[in-house]
Write a structure and sequence with these properties.
The protein has 161 residues and is an alpha/beta fold. The protein contains 5 helices and 6 strands; from the N terminus they run E-H-E-H-E-H-E-E-H-E-H.
């Protein structure tokens, strides 16, 4: 499940996204890949740790990343998020079963979704992340998305994302 190749066309989207999934539960990662591909996006890879995430992002820079906090190599999700934001300007959303472990400031991520979640939630969260990345809009977030504090009360000028 290293790199998913998806042929464009017929997806019904005007702007398919490159999405990186960083999740160490293989079955959940495969389900996310399936949902995202069915929605017409290109899943650049499913990483289980920081090293894999960095390699996949280097090969195919992501527009959006769905990142678990606790991975195979420990609680590296926040570090991965910060790197993806700084290097690729990716919109990052944490997917976690442990919301109490989300760092203050969300390490630059735009929000978090608590596990378990459904396919509709993932599609809505990815659409919100894409809109944020393109237009910097934060109105009407999906109901299951917990917005990062820096987005609920943004500073006078949003940091480059």
């Amino acid at each position: 499940m290293r790199y998913s190749v998806f042929k464009w066309g017929g997806g019904g989207l005007t702007d398919p996204l490159r999405i990186l999934v960083v999740e160490d539960q293989a079955i959940l990662a495969m389900e996310l890949e399936h949902v995202l591909t069915e929605a017409g996006h290109f899943v650049v890879g499913c990483a289980m740790d920081a090293v894999e995430a960095a390699a996949m992002a280097e090969r195919f820079p992501p527009d959006v990343a769905l990142v678990d906090i606790n991975l195979r190599d420990g609680s590296t999700g926040p570090l991965i998020a910060r790197g993806l934001i700084e290097r690729y300007e990716a919109a990052v959303v944490f997917l976690t079963a442990n919301p109490e472990q989300i760092p203050d400031g969300f390490s630059g991520a735009i929000g978090a979704v608590t596990k378990p979640f459904d396919d509709q939630t993932i599609r809505a969260v990815v659409a919100f992340a894409a809109r944020f990345r393109k237009e910097r809009l934060t109105d009407h977030p999906p109901s299951r998305l917990r917005l990062a504090p820096w987005l609920r009360e943004p500073p006078p000028r949003l940091p480059k994302h």
